[in-house]
Amino acid sequence: MDITTNKKTGSDAASPSRGELFLNRQLSTPVKKPPKNRKPVTPKPSASVIGCYGCGAPLQTTETDAPGYVDPETYELKKRHRQLRTVLCGRCRLLSHGHMITAVGGNGGYSGGKQFVSAEELREKLSHLRYEKVLIVKLVDIVDFNGSFLARIRDLAGANPIILVVTKVDLLPKGTDLNCVGDWVVEATIKKKLNVISVHLTSSKSLVGIAGVISEIQKEKKGSANVGKSAFINALLRTMAEKDPVAAAAQKYKPMQSAVPGTTLGPIQINAFQGSGKLFDTPGVHLHHRQAAVVHSEDLPSLAPQSRLRGQLFPLGSDVEGDNLNGVTLFWGGLVRIDVLKVLPETCLTFYGPKALQIHMVPTVDADEYYHKELGIGLTPPTGKERLEHWSGLQSVRHLEIKYEDHHRPACDIAISGLGWIAVNPVTKQSNVTSHSTNTFKASGVLHFDVHVPKPVEIFVRPPLPVSKEGGEWYEYQDLTEKEEEMRPKWHF
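Structure tokens predicted for Nitric oxide synthase:
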């Protein structure tokens, strides 16, 4: 999800911001323009189409089981009094009462799921931003950093400056040094070659960091149109309402928040700024590679962490004979299977994800039988026999060869899209490697795993995220020149 702010040049004496300076340099370089017979700008949504203020779906009175449905009598009454913009559709009313209803057909979703927006459709809807002078605010979930990053974001952003907002930092393990996390995010962002001018670590729940984002937007923008996630927009409204009566009034009809994917189905306009500025919440994006796209809607809450993450370490003491994971399979609920093929005797895995997903350990030779026996019972989600009927299983297998060179820090993270990550530690902190012979312990080498997930869930191997107190101890900052430091985006929390 992204927030975009149209920026109009003016005659004021204020000095240009860093984003404007960068954009002006980019615009001075000749850029290949699209053919004249093609229109580069995608038509924007018509203001004449009235949508539900909770999800943005066009209001309709015919399909009772589809998004946007309103009782015909209510619709006519509100229309007569010109109050359609205050109408909440039936689906949003259910969501507001805690029901888990997706916008996708199947998995407990509505039959009207065709209104759900895919990542490709969102790119098409927002493709005009590439050719406009805008500020983009991109939101990324720190718990699912890789999975929540919309692929090929450069296709949308073009040369425009980006403010990167990292959400849910309040869920990181206790003792985490946010200095290390901020630097880690900047390093990951630089590799994506995006024009990120600043990074903000935030929590929409506790409002941590929100004021800093508002300040940055106000410094960079000179116009209207914002687009972003519903939770973040609600947090913005709450913070702005303290000083802005317009934002305070806008809170009455704010977008619907829900744990289900695709809560927002159409652009939602919010009068949140004094003057001509408008706020827009974009349609939900169907990222098919996340775990939320394959589980039943009623199992979705089990994928959403509600409190600080606590790493679950394996093996635990005498759980494995000889403290050796070789030949062992770990099940993370019914969603992930990890076969440990070849590791060091001291190797351990630390799981970071929702508490509702239990981890089970069995010998690999018994793994297939155990999975079929316990799926839906001990291995959940999926939960129950009814949901097992539509479960396709762990069809995708990826072999990982993980190199390590430093036993004082994790070798990497294995991130599961839409779920969490597993830190791979070649040697546990408690291990006394000097007591092992050189044949047992090697300063560098390769660890081998097979990771099974449902199709089309993605697996990412990335540099380890420095969490908990230990992360601050092993994390190493890059040695940068003064010029390199100046060019790097600054991060805030």
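The longest strand covers residues 396-404.
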